[in-house]
Amino acid sequence: MRKNVVIAIDGYSSCGKSTLAKALAKKLGFIYVDSGAMYRAVTLYFLRNKINVADDASVADALQHIELNFHSRDYQSHITLNGEEVSDEIRLMPVSENVSEVSAHKIVRHEMVKQQQRMGKSKNIVMDGRDIGTTVFPDAPVKFFMTADPKIRAERRFKELESKGNNETTLEEVFENLAHRDYADTTRKESPLVRADDAIILDNTELTQEEQLAFALERVEPFLTKTA
User: Fold this and answer.
1) Model pLDDT for residues 141-161, shown as the tens digit of each residue
2) What is the pLDDT of residues 48-66, one digit of tens each?
């Protein structure tokens, strides 16, 4: 198998990017890097420390005090913020409502992109996010762009929140939040969400997790046997 293979997965919120990325990484023996979790963890730090996103100096200073790390447990990828496990907290609505603004910040994106590119220099990885195939790894040999019907996406996200014990958020609020994030992600000036010209579209509106994994594997495997 080739070394230093990067599989880039981009797409809209709640399209199952992380689910597919984790499954691919496990199947192929790659390392899974959740770039979205990195931005969410930064957002959580900003919220906790009342960092004004409009103040570039405050943002730059705050980033110097943030250490993010990934670790695996029970075949799942977990993220720590300055040594604290925050994998569940970063998925709650307060972070969801602010992550688009934080992740659109030029200084934040530049710092996160540098960290992500370092991760892909010496290992086989699967990374999902908004700009992985366009900005972080534009030369990735295989790229996917995931999408799904907005209503289905909202229902999936709502069920995920319910499973984590969040019963205060309504389905309508989740739908509106996703619509807001879609607009913010696709219209921001810094690395907007767009499909790379060579990205494979994966619409999983009517696909099971097993079906989308099979779809991806069929398209990834030819790249793994090519000589570097």
Assistant:
1) 999 999 999 999 999 999 988
2) 999 999 999 999 999 999 9
Annotated binding-site residue numbers for ATP: 11-19
CA atoms within 13 A on the CB side of 67: 3
The number of residues making up the chain comes to 228
Give the chain's residues under pLDDT 70: 1-3, 72-76, 226-228
- Residues making up the annotated binding site are 11-19
For residue 148, which of 201, 96, 193 has the smallest C-alpha distance? 201
Q: What angle do CA 171, 193, 218 make, to 5 degrees?
A: 90
pTM over 0.85: no
For 120, other C-beta atoms within 10 Å of its C-beta total 20
Strand partners, 200: 144
